[in-house]
# Entry
Amino acid sequence: MSVSLRDAKASAEDRRWIQAVYPEYLEELSRLTHSGTGVFPVYGEHGPREDELLARWFRDDRSHPLLILDGGRAAGFALVARPLVPPRSAADAEFRMAEFYVRNTHRRRGIGRAAAELIFSRFAGRWEVAEALANADAVSFWRRVVAAYTRGRYEERVASDEVRQRFTSSNTPWLGRT
# Structure
């Protein structure tokens, strides 16, 4: 397994791949949360809104769409977002994992974990990762990944049907981390 990331803004092909896979991602989220409306609508429920949302990813300086690669082949995508307003205090997050998806055929092999660690190190600073409480698989995944990456040095809060992990990342890998 050789996991890497690529800036999707740099490639029209990467953008098309994300656009093609995005409906699959939304459909999975709507099934996992047992909701066809609200936080994770069924793809197409809001007409062209999805296309505009994706277009924003690629033109907004505060958004960083990334392609997750497994052995050089597209396996998923992530969207790292920076806040509209600069952080006001040292406790405010500088980065947020806005979207994260690894296709089913690439799961359960450590690709998501490795990609998340690469992302956290690439964007060193104060982070927030949030999951819908109803998405038990995502909650379990992020708890494991964040706990391992930070060696348990993170805060977690559950409120408004969301689980949020907050921590600080570094672009220096932890020495001796396995």
